[in-house]
Write a structure and sequence with these properties.
The complex is a heterodimer of chains A (441) and B (93).
Chain A lengths: L8 E3 L4 E3 L6 E2 L12 E5 L3 H11 L5 E4 L6 H11 L3 E5 L12 E4 L4 E2 L11 E5 L9 E5 H5 L9 E4 L6 H11 L4 E4 L6 H11 L3 E4 L1 H9 L10 E5 L5 H10 L4 E8 L3 E6 L6 E2 L9 E6 L2 E6 L5 E3 L13 E10 L2 E7 L4 E3 L2 E3 L1 H9 L4 E11 L3 E10 L7 H14 L8 E4 L16
Parallel strand pairs in A: 1-12, 4-5, 4-6, 5-9, 6-7, 11-12, 11-13, 13-14, 14-15, 26-27
Antiparallel strand pairs in A: 1-2, 3-8, 9-10, 10-20, 15-16, 17-22, 18-19, 19-21, 21-22, 23-24, 25-26
Helix pairs in contact in A: 6-7
Chain B lengths: L11 H18 L20 H15 L16 H12 L1
Helix pairs in contact in B: 1-2
Chain lengths: 441, 93
């Protein structure tokens, strides 16, 4: 991949990759030649190495298998099997993974001069795990074409993301940087939101991407005004009206948008009107992205979707018309569709179905609530009841009066069986590595 | 009604009051009108629906530390207010 341009860089907290150096330097050294035409498992310890290896492997490897951060030996073995990986790129500074692959190349930074230029002969497939929360993650195959089909690169943008670039959401931002952005600033797993915001301010980040949960942490942070973004981008979870309104108020000069995307379906659309959900008018089959709603669930067909699932027992990714079933349940209200939750996440209260996400949206609309997590509490009478954990906004009192007020507001907004029957205050919500509210447990 | 206090156990009279108070709270929160409560009033005639009942059982689990409905197995389930109170008394012994 051509990643050229004077002065352009990808910076983690501890390392800055200067992109123009890839013309004659690399992190994989002479070992890269041994990876030609292979299915390469990429399992390195940090994002700077991952970015360097991706730049070098594209065109040389037949397939790159992006391993998510922190993947243990079992996960790596499963990924290797599903992708039939026959080579491994590992971290020069860490113990080599215990996995049965003999062709191994260490990834090392800083970049070292190359003896010979890279020969890029393949249209490399990029394989990555889905972020599915139920069961083991499935592996999908993309190419650079599907991964970049949604872009219209514009000069002068300084991008940043809360995401890890080894997952689809973060990879999208890395590719934007490699294809023309001025710079990319990445986080560090050991830094909190405050430290990251300080770095983003210093880097002058203009376009910043994260999940609604990441952005809610920003709304709670004392360093939120270190940044002056032009574009605030949310994706990965349902963007509720309360979070969108909070961001518009905090950054009045920014364009606030939420992107609907998944590892399987790709980036489907971006909503820029500041409201949750999306206009019903975009559900049609014209253009690059075709949308359908089938039995209340959104399906997408586009040139940004993954090609297929990988692995011996892999299911079909697309239906007979080429549509990917997103698993996201949508509900039409007037001229708009709202996201009400994941198909698998339903809480069953005496036979009546409740999506945790719609209850969270109602909770988040309350002025004392910054973030919430709704989950099932087992009941011998109705099977389950709706329970909630709340993170309060600064200044709100964590007392019975606040609790009663929040619950009363929910009962006014929702049918009785959907309003939480139990509520507790917590300091923070459990999150997945991908920056989304963790729903199990 | 038992009058034998067990060491460390909740005294019997407090269990009754706890349950009656919880019934009142749940009815108020769920905007239900309660019938006048007496020991022989059938639970189905109290004014509480199954959602209210489920919430009541969960609240009592939090307050008293026991959920005799989950532990019930093949035993008889209570059908009146008095049987409900006895159900919890027996579980707390």
């Amino acid at each position: 991949m051509a990643a050229s341009g004077r002065g352009r860089r990808v910076a983690t907290r501890d390392f800055a990759l200067e992109l123009d150096r890839f013309a004659d330097s690399g992190s994989l050294g002479d070992g890269l030649a041994r990876l030609e035409g292979r299915s390469v498992l990429l399992a390195v310890g940090d994002m700077a190495k991952a970015a360097a290896a991706l730049i070098e492997l594209d065109g040389v490897a037949r397939q790159i298998v992006l391993c998510p951060p922190g993947a243990g030996a079992d996960s790596l073995a499963a990924l290797a099997r599903a992708a039939a990986a026959d080579a491994l790129v590992h971290d020069a500074d860490a113990p080599a993974p215990q996995i049965d692959i003999t062709t191994r190349v260490a990834c090392r930074l800083p970049l070292a001069a190359l003896a010979a230029p890279r020969a890029a002969r393949f249209v490399t497939e990029w394989a990555m795990p889905t972020s599915g929360t139920s069961g083991p993650p499935k592996l999908v195959a993309h190419t650079l074409a599907t991964l970049t089909a949604a872009f219209h690169p514009v000069a002068g943008q300084r991008w940043a993301t809360f995401y890890d670039i080894r997952r689809y959401g973060g990879l999208q931002i890395l590719l934007r940087a490699l294809l023309g952005a001025e710079s990319l600033t990445l986080g560090d797993p050991n830094d909190g939101v405050d430290a990251f915001l300080v770095r983003l301010g210093e880097a002058g980040a203009t376009h910043i991407s994260g999940t609604p949960s990441h952005w809610r942490k920003v709304l709670m942070s004392g360093e939120a005004r270190r940044i002056a973004p032009q574009r605030v981008r949310l994706s990965g979870e349902i963007a509720d009206d309360a979070t969108l309104a909070g961001l518009r108020a905090l950054y009045p000069n920014a364009h606030v948008e939420h992107a609907y995307a998944s590892t399987e379906a790709g980036v489907a659309f971006v909503v820029c009107d500041g409201r949750a959900g999306f206009p019903a008018s975009i559900v049609d089959e014209r253009g690059e992205v075709a949308l359908r709603v089938v039995e209340g669930v959104l399906r997408v067909r586009s040139n940004r979707a993954a090609l297929r699932y990988l692995g011996a027992d892999a299911p079909a990714l697309k239906d007979c018309d080429g549509f990917v079933d997103t698993g996201d349940v949508v509900e039409r209200r007037g001229d708009r569709y709202l996201f009400v939750g994941r198909r698998g996440g339903i809480i069953n209260v005496g036979g009546a179905k409740v999506h945790p996400e719609e209850v969270e949206a109602a909770l988040n609309a309350h002025k004392a609530v910054r973030a919430s997590r709704v989950f099932a509490r087992k009941s011998p009478i109705t099977g389950a009841l709706v329970a909630a954990e709340i993170v309060l906004r600064d200044g709100a009192a964590a007392d019975e009066a606040t609790k009663r007020d929040i619950l009363a507001a929910c009962r006014a907004a929702l049918p009785a069986y959907k309003a939480p029957s139990f509520l507790r205050f917590v300091a923070e919500l459990p999150m997945t590595d991908g920056g989304k509210v963790a729903r199990h447990g | 009604m038992r009058h034998i206090p067990q060491r460390g156990a909740t005294p019997v009279m407090t269990t009754r009051l706890t349950i009656l108070a919880a019934i009142g709270e749940v009815a108020a929160e769920q905007s239900k009108t309660l019938a006048p409560l007496s020991d022989d009033l059938p639970l189905m005639e109290t004014g509480l629906d199954s959602l209210c009942f489920a919430i009541l059982v969960a609240r009592l689990e939090d307050a008293l530390g026991t959920d005799p409905f989950t532990a019930a197995g093949d035993g008889r389930l209570p059908s009146t207010v008095g049987e409900l109170i006895a159900f919890y008394d027996n579980a707390l012994v």
